[in-house]
Amino acid sequence: MKSKRTFVFRCSSCGHTEPKWLGRCPDCGEWNTLVETAAAESGRGAAARSGERNAPQSFPLSSVDSDEGSRIGSGSGELDRVLGGGVMRRGAILVGGEPGIGKSTLLLQLAAQVKTKGRVLYISGEESAGQLKMRADRLRLSCDKIEIYCSGNLTDIENILESVKPVVVIVDSAQTLFTTEAGLVPGTVNQMKYCSFELISWVKEHDAALFLVAHVTKEGIIAGPKTLEHMVDTVLYFEQTDTDKRFLRATKNRFGSVDEIGIFTMTERGLCAVEDPSVLFLVRREGSLPPGIATAAVLEGSRALLVEIQALTVPAKGGMSRVYADRIDGARVARVAATLEKTLGIRLSDQDIYVNVAGGIRINEVGVELGLAASIYSARTGIPLPQRTAVCGELTLAGEVMPVRRLSGRIKTALNLGFEKIVCPACDEATMKEAAELCRCTAVKDLKSAVAAIF
């Protein structure tokens, strides 16, 4: 005889279940969130049904075909660079960024340009089909292989997935997904975790790839549970400068590096990759440089870039010095300033220090420290750096200049952009000899010799 179906009361906020209704959830403390839902099957019936299926079996790793993890070209070289070479099959990618920065535009371009003969399913819970078509027409995208569905109902989405069998699934956004199994209110923590897990499970079982768009909080982090970032394979963040430039970074990537950066320009045709980012962060000036300006050769992933570091020192207000820097870590600026004061004897403890990077890019690489020191020294003393001089190197607290990665690539990039003098830490003799034949390349060991070589 068929067993009687039972019901429980599940919290729509946290997912906690109770056998009877309560006014307040004992787990999360929210009021009036317990909703009557069907209880999960358990006991003999569930055990019997699980026994009907084949018993799970393991297999040796050596028997696995490595082509099972093959990548799909996204159609964008910058996006492929950040992802580690392309879109990984059976992978889940979470894309976050400020409102209006271009997340939906990027993924609509991906849907039209991805290098696959299969179908692409674009699920939108925020825009209608007409709005998506207007955007595609404005961007002049081919829509032949794009299937769209405008709803956040997980049950309907799963039915469409089974019928379409897409190769790439795009969900915009994770906050709009909902199912009655996880409560009645979309956007809750339990809804996001449950719906995202179901979609991730589907793409891993069907050899597809999933892109999830996520909202961000006012602090700039992805809204919702941190568990969502642990569930996916890759987490991408979109950053925006004061201009039309966009930077795409990976904070987590199971299939590639997190050091790579994708650089785009927002145009009327959508997001366009920047072909030559080497000159993007340099300011062209006539005549000599003003004090406080230094050009540093840094690495962003596998690319060497030349960036302009701008520094300004003014007497501290109220007797307490402060550091103002949003593109370089303020703790790094304070440490370099303290090293300058201790090693060279210039007084900075009574100065407010302002540091900026031209072009709005955020620099985290240690090779920027010698260039940062040169710009602060120039700003404090009023002595400008010579024209066409590039600097790179890592500083220790004792004022030593340490070697940096891929120094030869930085030197070649500086030479290609017309720089005539390079001050850098010492490296292998072959690289230094080759650089010395093309320009004045000065190898330094400490901060004193670096300042002497630069100024």
Structure description:
This protein is α/β, with parallel strands linked by helices. It folds into 3 domains: 7-44; 70-275, P-loop containing nucleotide triphosphate hydrolases (Rossmann fold, 3-Layer(aba) Sandwich); 293-454, Ribosomal Protein S5, domain 2 (2-Layer Sandwich). Helices cover 28% and strands 26% of the residues. The chain has 12 helices and 23 strands. It has helices spanning 44-52, 77-83, 103-113, 129-139, 154-164, 189-205, 227-231, 330-344, 369-381, 407-416, 429-438, 447-454, and strands spanning 7-11, 17-18, 34-38, 71-72, 87-88, 92-97, 120-124, 146-149, 168-172, 209-214, 234-240, 245-253, 261-267, 270-273, 293-300, 303-315, 323-325, 351-357, 389-391, 394-395, 401-402, 421-425, 440-444. It has a 9-stranded mixed beta sheet, sandwiched between helices. Helix 8 crosses helix 9 and helix 10 runs parallel beside helix 11 (429-438). The chain is elongated, with a radius of gyration of 28 Å. Residues 41-53 have low confidence and may be disordered.
